[in-house]
Design brief:
Length: 172
């Protein structure tokens, strides 16, 4: 039997008050937002708390929202899974666009090591405390972060692909 979302929300609100907000179901996954300063403590609590028992990090990824305000231009999304109760949750934290950084959870979930490196590699999000934060898929000499939406999908010399077909311009 799955953990009741009301129990998860109640535990988080009791422990973290206004550091956790916007609780909702999104496509059958219980989702909420946390402040970037509280990432480590919230995720550690969800892992160690006997009633929640989220011992598996399914995914960690970045998202770029260039049209948002400067304080919400980047988002790191964490997906956790409770294997015993077969319950999944999604946690979002928004980051400043001028200097996107958040604490690493690589010591809490070892699997996040590569996920954080990939997110850094493609979005330029700095994971403070990561043991070896460097590019993982792109060349070390690369100075840009290719998943940021400020960069076109293809080089300007290509005529067979057009950003308009991928929803990248306002004039679609």
């Amino acid at each position: 039997m799955a953990i009741e979302t009301a129990l998860i929300q109640e535990k988080l609100e009791q422990k973290f008050a206004n550091k956790v907000t916007n609780f909702e179901m999104q496509k059958d996954i219980f989702s909420f937002e946390i402040t970037s300063e509280s990432v480590r403590e919230v995720i550690l609590f969800l892992k160690e708390e006997e009633d929640t028992n989220f011992h598996f990090l399914t995914d960690l990824c970045g998202v770029h929202y260039p049209d948002n305000t400067i304080d919400h231009q980047f988002c790191v999304v964490y997906h956790l899974h409770n294997w015993v109760e077969n319950t999944r949750i999604r946690i979002k934290t928004y980051l400043n666009g001028a200097q996107p950084e958040v604490a690493s959870i690589s010591d809490i979930f070892l699997s996040s090591n590569w996920m954080e490196r990939e997110t850094y590699d493609f979005y330029g999000i700095n994971f403070i405390g990561h043991p070896q934060l460097k590019r993982i898929l792109n060349m070390d000499e690369m100075v840009s972060f290719p998943m940021r939406k400020e960069f076109p999908m293809e080089d300007n010399g290509r005529t067979d692909k057009d950003d308009r077909f991928f929803g990248r311009t306002a004039n679609c």
